[in-house]
Amino acid sequence: MYMTPGNNNVEPQNPTSSQYPLRPTGRVSPFRLNIGRSLRLHPVTSILTGLLTLGLGLAVYARHKPNFVAASFIYVSPTVPKTLVEDRELERPYETYIQDTVHAINQYSVLAETLRRLPPGTWVNPGESEQSAVQRLQQSLDISRVGASYQVFIALDGPRPEHLAEIVNTITQVYIDKAKSDEFYGRDDRLNTLKEEQTRIQADIDARQKEQAQLTRDLGVASFSSKGSNVFDEQNAKVQGDLTTAHEKTIEAQAQLNALKTGDPNAANSALNAAAEEAIASDPGLMAMKSNLSQKRAEAIGRLDGLTPANPSYKQTQDQLAQIDKALADMERDLRRQAAARLEQKYRTQLYQSEAVENRLTGDLQHGTREATAAAPKIQRAEAVQADLDRLQGRLAAVDDRISNLELESSSPGSVHLFSPAMTPLGPEKSKATALLIVIFPLALFVGIIAAVVMDLFDPHIYTALDVEAVLGFAPIGMLFDDREVTQMVFDECALRLAAGIDHAARLGGARTFVLTAVNTGAGTTSIVENLGSMLAKLGRKTLLIDPSGNNEPVAFVTFGTALQRRPVSFPDAAPVAPPPSTGLQAVKPGRPNLPSRQAPMSGFVFDRFQNMSADYDIVLIDAAPLLLSAETEYLARMADVTVLVSEAGTTKKAWLTRAARLLERLGVAGAAAIVNKVHPSRVEDAMKHDLREFELRNDKANLQDWWKKKAPAATAPNPVEPQKDRADEEDVIYARDL
């Protein structure tokens, strides 16, 4: 029960505000796992689920047949093997490529081509379409990468070993062919395009060569160079060079001749000296004469040595020496004149020759220039044709290389090749049916338990006090078993506990008025109020039961001595008459308000009658209509000290109880409590079951002792040998008799 907290030093008589307690607390889990309770609550669900799981497992085991597997392995190279040169066109990330390989093997085109290559009846059933056969083959294939290796596993299983290896090997070969074709995607189209380009280039070359041949015939040359030179330019350049050389020689000859003409023949001249020496050297007679004169001169000079001028031989020798010098000078002068004449003739001849050569070369240059000028357009066209031929030849060579590379690479092994072919299986695979048969029984048991637990966890209804505590955040004030499932003594025990809780709230909390309202219709509020009234009266509490609907008169439960009386009470016109002193009714404490003072008092006839009628009672129990359906109950909840929500086990839903709790929060009730009615004994906690069994055993024992007492003679003396009865058993008997 929850009541509005107040000052601990002051008696909490007039609660004035609500602290909104009706919320689940953190210590109460909304999901409580109790396997035994779940199995007891949902035995049918657990059994049916377990049997269904067991049946399915046994059906799978019964349908199991021997399974044969044929598998092949393909090797996916991380790099594409190249025959010629590296080609970046085929570079790709390996992880992506091998995953694409795994998915591509199972594609429709590969399997459809496989079925076309296989003999009829190998896989396709009679009358079956290709699409259906391919889908069936896709579902039967197991394709995966072997760990982190470069191998891919292709496996096919079936109930018979025939044709499995043939089908797997055909699938493998079809995919290898397709993978090789995909590596050179559009190879045929590219080859056709390249060959068409090759033909076009060759036609252009032939046309250019034909035009070039005509130009060479017209120009009278054998070929043209692509470097921009031609035969006419080369000839003119050579003539120009020769003409320059000839002109230089002419100038040199003219200069020599002019120097010879303008110079003194008798002067020292290296050219003349050289010519004279050359003449002497080339004439033996002159050479001998000069040598003889030089010898005589040397002899004359030798005779002069040692002679004095006074010596007659000295003068004679001097005269002889003078004659010799004169002869040598005359000879040299004659030779110089002769050399000058010869040099002049030589230089003049050279001048005539160089001028003649220069004139001839000048004529040749003019003629070559005229020819080059006339042939210039053809020469330019020939050069352009030669440049086109060179470009086309390079283009043709590149196209020829690409065609050759494609044809050669397409005939080479691809990046995917067969690593291990599939073999016909010699025996079936190791069966897992035995393991399934071992596992199916505990699995069925486990599934049955899980089904019961899940049904229990997600059951929306209220069954026990713990369910109420999980919703409201506090334990209910009492719990009543279904009177059809327990004995009357057990039911009375629960009712007494509930009455004791109400009495405790009245004594310690100062509560007088209790509104009992059901969360849903049919929760048994009326029977609870009746039982509480009688039990509270037995506890010495004057109790008044009120039906706000007016269908029943108010009922008072009072105790006269040891007798319990139940009497109707009507609304009096005046204040009620005090009971006689001999009735034993407890007096109302002076100054205690009859209704909660925090609410504005009711005005008019109803309030006065209610005040007069309830003034003489300790506890007022109001049997109100369901809270969610009645505005009158909401009004009474605001007035009452405690509002008690009654839930019916197995019928009231947690959502309904939550709505009722939220409504009480909005109403700001002074206090709130909860009762769970019609609880089935099988749904309560194990501790409660244990207490219930102990209580029933104690009652059975007490009843047996009473029976023996009635049967035994009253005057029989106690046997001294008989052991004394347990004092606790006697107290239990007395307590049970009082109940």
Biggest sheet statistics:
9 strands, mixed
Mean of pLDDT = 75
- Strand portion: 5-15%
Total DSSP E strands: 13
Count of alpha and pi helical runs: 20
Distance between the termini: 25 Å
| Rg, alpha carbons | 70 Å
Helix/strand-derived category reads alpha/beta
Are there runs of 5+ residues with pLDDT below 50, and where?
A: 5-20, 573-606, 714-739
What overall form do the CA principal axes indicate?
elongated
Helix content: 55-70%
Short structural summary:
By secondary structure, the chain is α/β, with parallel strands linked by helices.
Any overview of this molecule?
There is one protein chain. The chain is 57% helix and 10% strand. The protein is of the alpha/beta class and 739 residues long. α8 runs antiparallel to α11, α14 (488-509) packs across α15 and α19 (686-711) packs across α20. The longest helix has 99 residues, at 312-410.
